[in-house]
Specification:
Blueprint: H1 2-15, H2 20-33, H3 43-70, E1 79-85, E2 91-97, H4 101-121, H5 125-134, H6 138-145, H7 149-167
Antiparallel strand pairs: 1-2
Helix pairs in contact: 1-2, 1-3, 2-3, 4-5, 4-7, 5-6, 5-7, 6-7
Length: 172
């Protein structure tokens, strides 16, 4: 009976489109079919049961993935999440993506402040800031600015400290 159910599921897999969700569902159903404790009156009933259980498993996995992702910070500051609780107590998390002229003005002003501060570090300061903003390593920045890696790291530390003061004056 188990072999007949597996054959039916493999047939579904071969006939199905290359839709990721459907293939994940069939893959989960195949795994469930292999379980020795699973029994049914007929192969058809076994296929129905494992497909039903696989649907629940894949839906739960997607919900858990979204819930886990909603707890992590977003990489882009222009995106944020809003959490709402409806009357039934269910929590929904929405992604809000908006860029305002104010956010652009604040970012531009912060960059101007950091550039001005970088010039006070020395002639290498603005180039070290540029390397930091570009995501370069200390070695790459040191090579492009003709200073030592230690000098770049000291400049980056000073720039980061100044950025903390600009962005969160109470925390510094």
């Amino acid at each position: 009976m188990r072999v007949a159910a597996l054959t039916t599921l493999y047939g579904l897999e071969q006939r199905s489109s290359r839709d990721r969700r459907k293939l994940d569902l069939i893959d989960a159903a195949l795994s469930l079919t292999l379980g020795e404790k699973r029994a049914a009156a007929s192969p058809k009933k076994l296929v129905q049961n494992v497909l039903s259980d696989a649907r629940r498993i894949t839906n739960r996995a997607e919900q858990n993935g979204r819930a886990a992702a909603s707890k992590r910070p977003l990489a882009d500051a222009s995106h944020r999440r809003i959490t709402r609780t409806d009357h039934g107590g269910a929590v929904t998390v929405e992604l809000v993506s908006n860029e305002t002229p104010e956010s652009h003005a604040i970012a531009a002003e912060t960059l101007r402040e950091l550039t001005t501060y970088a010039t006070t570090i020395g002639a290498h300061g603005p180039r070290c800031l540029l390397g930091l903003l570009r995501g370069q390593t200390a070695a790459q920045t040191a090579t492009s600015t003709n200073v030592s890696i230690a000098t770049v790291e000291r400049a980056w530390k000073a720039i980061r400290t100044h950025a903390r003061i600009l962005l969160a004056p109470d925390a510094a």
